[in-house]
Every structure is written in C-alpha cells, then in structure tokens.
Amino acid sequence: MRAGALILLVLSASGSPGEETLVHVSGISQAPQRALLSPRPEAAPVEVEIRDGHLGRPLALIGGAEASLTLLDDAGLPTLSPLRFLVPAEGGRHVLIVSPGLPSGARLNLVPADFTSQPVGSSRFLNLSDNVVRCWLGTQFVEVAPGRSALHPLEGRGRRKVNHRVEYLDRQGKWTLDSSTTLILAADQRFIFTLGPGRAEDGPLLRHNVTDHAPEANALPETKVSPAALKPPQRPPAK
Questions:
Q1: Distance CA 147, CA 132 (A)
Q2: By the 8 A CB rule, do 92 and 101 touch?
Q3: What DSSP state is assigned to residue 78?
Q4: Distance CA 212, CA 112 (A)
Q5: Which of 175, 194, 217 is CA-nearest to residue 124?
Q6: How many CB atoms lie within 10 A of CB 116?
Q7: Which residues are registered as beta bridge partners of 211?
Q8: 188 Cβ neighbours under 8 A, 6+ residues apart
Q9: What is the pLDDT along the chain (239 residues), one digit of tens a residue?
Q10: Which ranges of 17-119 would DSSP assign to H, the alpha helix?
C-alpha cells in the first residue's frame, strides 16, 4: 500500500490514564503481516504480527497513551507513515483492525472485544462504507452508521446457518438491497464482519471478517508492550 488517505477512528478515553489495556491487532483484505508498534511517541517500536482475518492474543498497552502502528512490507521496510491511534484509557480489551484506505493507504478502527461487549457466539458489524447500512442475520438486523460498529442481536453459541443480507440507505433516503449470501457461523467462536469501504451506489460493498476461533485462549495477553523504564542516575562516588 502507498501513502494516501488516512482515516482514524479512535475510542474516547474516559478512564484513568495508565491503566493496562489489551489490544489485538488484526487485518482484513490482505493487510501486511508485519508492523512496528510504538506504545508512546517517545518509545522504541517493537515488531508485531498482524493476524489477517482472525484474532490473535492481545498485546498489553498503556491506556490513554497515543500509540502508532507502522506497516511493513515483506522486506521489513515501512509502507506508510506511522498510523496513530489512542489506546482506550478505560482498560478492557479491544481489536485494532487494519483495513484499506481510500483512495490508497490504510485505515485503523478500534472495536471492543471483551466478553461483555461481544459474547462468545455473537457477531459484530463494522461499517467502513459511506452509507448507513442494515446488517441482517436471519430475521433480525442491526443498523450501523458509517465509521461505527454494532453488535447483532442474534444469540447462541452453537453452529448456525443464516442468511446474511445487507441494505443501505441511498441518497434519496430509501433502503436498497446491496447483497445477500449464506453464512455458516461455527460453534463457540466470535465474528467481526466488515462492510466497505466506498459508497454502496458504486457497486456491492466488499465484505470481510475477523474470526475469533479460540476466545478463551486468545483472551490471554501475548506480551506487554510498554516504554522501557528509565534507569535512575548513579550517585557520584564520594570524595
């Protein structure tokens, strides 16, 4: 990906700064597999893996800090300027989703990932398009504004086969069918479905997903990423 439009969606920080926050880094649409993560502007970056299409174990970051993610190509060279985001200060667990930007570049979205915000077996929809959309699973839908995510009301941890239909609100204020397909939701997993980017009027919205295949195991932090503590100055020898 080349440097281009950068769109950041960050969650507001309402808790006390410094609280540990767990962040998964996942990608869609063949995002780069490697990146440098800086937990604070002055901190040295560490290399992390971007899990494309599925959820890995989270990294422990300092809540309330401005962090950055630098995408790397296969040779380990930066493909873009650092993409900055605010680590939620309230703690908890979140997914940082790396997706294509418009007209080129990259986009970051943070969505909640704790089991209260998204129980095992549930589906969340992230709207990357410019339209308000309705996301159906079976006979129920959830309405999602551009740049936002919402949890679908369908419940259950078992394997299910459901019709997934997407409608969008067009410029005339009319709900219009975008696409329809059949999904098989595996048992005891969690799903984040993305729609977009772009306008639905220009063609069917791209659809991708990030799947949490092992919710309990993936809830354990992989490593702590925090600035190195400064060593106190040594006392000069007594004369």
A1: 9
A2: no
A3: B
A4: 13
A5: 194
A6: 8
A7: 54, 191
A8: 120, 121, 157, 215
A9: 333 323 233 333 333 456 899 999 999 998 999 999 999 888 889 999 999 999 988 999 999 999 999 999 999 999 988 999 999 998 999 999 999 876 668 999 999 999 999 999 999 999 999 999 999 999 999 999 999 999 999 999 999 999 999 999 999 999 999 999 999 999 999 999 999 999 999 999 999 999 999 999 999 988 777 654 444 445 544 44
A10: none
Token representation of residue 5 = 């439009």
Can you tell me which residue has the tokens 């979205």?
A: 109
pTM: 0.85
What DSSP element (H or E) covers 65? none
In this structure, are strands 46-49 and 83-86 parallel, antiparallel, or unpaired?
unpaired
Residue 129 DSSP label: E
Name residue 98's amino acid.
V
Distance (Å) of CA 222 to CA 60, 78, 92, 109, 190: 8, 24, 15, 21, 19
DSSP symbol at 228 = P
